[in-house]
Design goal:
The structure holds two protein chains of two kinds. By secondary structure, chain A is α/β, with parallel strands linked by helices. Chain A contains ten helices and twelve strands. Chain B is of the alpha/beta class. Classes of the chains: A alpha/beta, B alpha/beta.
């Protein structure tokens, strides 16, 4: 009956993309937020952004929705809408103060994630984007399990160029293979910095072992693109604005747009035809 | 009662609500600084999904052995002044993912806290994963009888990071863990070509948070490609790059930790 309830909710979701990384702080939430904005630029598409980072929910701030609360109705929890066609859900909306900490062990976190899938009234959506915390633990196992009732198009894995990140990302790639989650591709974030004054490039996070490019070659996954560092990205996230709109000429914006397009193309090719009957 | 932590003088935790802010980096540099001040240091890496510490000391290929009192920590060099324990040493293949739910993680953390034969240490630094969940609850519970010195919280300057670290401060308050101070990492980047400083991840959020929360501010550490390179290659940044831009801040953080132990009666 539980599985049926999950299946029912997910029936109206056309495409699901998980944003993962083994490593923390590489830009998963930043990317998820921009992917959501990018896809929602097409007014004809309905986009949903689900933040399952229970301990460190960054999405409300990044989407300019801090302080918003979740409302309940007969049909379930209402997502918080940024635009008419872009809805968001996060544990952040359930907390009453920015100092509130969610100090939960695994089972309680899993319970909330299940509720997010089962009880949120998303309506009909073209894209469900799921932002995750770093690691390969409860949240990741649970989301794959609960979304298994629907069809997950695949995972986008975020990394930065240095080996300290790549060593965790390889584990994430192995996790995806273990749970049979298709990998759409890898994004190398924070890939170089151009000094605004002298225009020289610095590798602040040096690709000492060949960066994402070499890792992707070795592990036979797609490299979707590289995004350079741009101080405006952090500023836009802190203000809750879309970096893509605030800095349309930035090389980082160009990279993000190319990557988003590749993800769209991937989803279109792997169009979900029929509901699986278990 | 003899226990493996009986010979450890001071235990300190390195925490952050946020991932990727530099907890393992700060743990590593603090250990190296304390070593250069003549201290014996251990690092316990309880990040089970993303264990970064072994590589930062170039010992990622080492094995661990057992003795009568438990696991023997891995020494990073001949003079045995820094020893490590991490799940990284227990993995058969480095790319193996540890895909465990909470209860299994908790069991290993309890073992790590109780069963590593550290011997005599001046400091045991406990490096943690981001968050306020199983690993953190279990680590604090297991360490409670040994009265930790306290916790250092690491953040980057921007609001999105500070937002998570505020929650970590609440965690410390709720679990009775003393906050030794906040470090603002990745605080500005000085271009090596023209010396222009760019605040890539904004500036000042860590210092403001420390003021707002009434905890000590331990300092700003700038972005430094030499530091990143050292960590990648497992080199001793404190010894090799004393002129680099991150060195003064890191040395100052270590000094404040040493000062805090002399305030505390043993």
């Amino acid at each position: 009956a539980e599985a049926a309830a999950l299946r029912e909710r997910l029936r109206a979701v056309r495409h699901t993309v998980l944003v993962l990384s083994g490593k923390g702080g590489v830009g998963k939430s930043t990317f998820s937020a921009l992917l959501a904005h990018g896809l929602a630029a097409d007014q004809a598409k309905q986009v949903a952004l689900l933040d399952i980072d229970i301990c460190g929910p960054s999405i409300p701030k990044m989407m300019g929705l801090e302080g918003e609360q979740v409302h309940q109705s007969g049909s379930g929890w209402s997502p918080v809408y940024v635009e008419e066609n872009l809805g968001v859900m996060s544990v952040g909306f359930l907390l009453s103060s920015p100092d509130d900490a969610v100090i939960w062990r695994g089972p309680k976190k899993n319970g909330l994630i299940k509720q997010f899938i089962r009880d949120v009234d998303w309506g009909e959506i073209d894209y469900l984007i799921v932002d995750t915390p770093p690691g390969t633990s409860d949240e990741h196992l649970s989301i794959v399990q609960y979304l298994g009732a629907a069809h997950i198009d695949g995972a986008v894995i975020i990394t930065t160029p240095q080996e300290v990140s790549l060593q965790d990302v390889r584990k994430e790639i192995n996790f995806c293979r273990k749970v049979k989650l298709p990998i759409i591709g890898v994004v190398e974030n924070m890939s170089g910095f151009i000094c605004p004054k002298c225009k020289n490039e610095s590798q602040i996070f040096p690709p000492t072992t060949g960066g994402a490019e070499k890792m992707c070659q070795k592990l036979n996954v797609s490299l979707l693109g590289k995004v350079p560092l741009d101080p405006q990205i952090g500023k836009s996230c802190d203000k809750g604005q879309s970096f893509l709109s605030e800095a349309p000429e930035s090389p980082a914006t160009l990279s993000y747009r190319n990557i988003i397009q590749r993800i769209q193309e991937y989803c279109d090719q792997h169009h979900f035809q029929e509901e699986k009957i278990i | 009662e003899s226990s493996n932590l009986a010979g450890v003088r001071h235990i300190l935790l390195v925490l952050s609500g946020k991932g990727g802010v530099g907890k393992s980096t700060i743990s590593t540099e603090l250990a190296l600084s304390l070593r250069h001040s003549g201290k014996k240091v251990g690092i316990l890496d309880v990040d089970l999904c993303g264990p970064s510490i072994p590589r930062m000391f170039r010992v990622q290929d080492n094995d661990v052995h057992q003795c009568d009192s438990g696991w023997v920590p891995v020494f990073v060099d001949q003079d045995k002044s820094i020893s490590l324990m991490s799940i990284g040493f227990l993995l058969e293949k480095p790319d193996d993912a540890v895909v465990w739910r909470g209860p299994k993680k908790n069991a290993l953390i309890k073992q790590f806290v109780a069963d590593v034969a550290w011997g005599d240490l001046d400091f045991l630094i406990v490096d943690t994963p981001p968050g306020t969940s199983d690993e953190h609850i279990s680590t604090v519970e297991a360490l409670r009888p040994y009265k930790p010195l306290g916790a250092i919280l690491v953040t980057t300057p921007q609001a999105v990071a500070v937002g998570d670290v505020r929650r970590e401060l609440t965690f410390c308050k709720k679990t009775g863990l003393r906050v030794l101070g906040i470090v603002e990492n990745m605080s500005g980047f000085v271009c090596p070509h023209c010396s222009e400083c760019t605040n890539i991840f904004s500036k000042g959020g860590g210092e403001e948070l420390a003021k707002h929360a009434g905890v000590p501010f331990l300092g700003c550490v700038p972005l430094d490609p030499q530091l990143s390179q050292s960590l990648e290659e497992g080199r001793d940044f404190i010894q090799e790059f004393p002129k680099s831009s991150a060195f003064p801040a890191l040395a100052h953080i270590a000094q404040q930790i040493l000062d805090s132990t002399s305030q505390r009666s043993s």
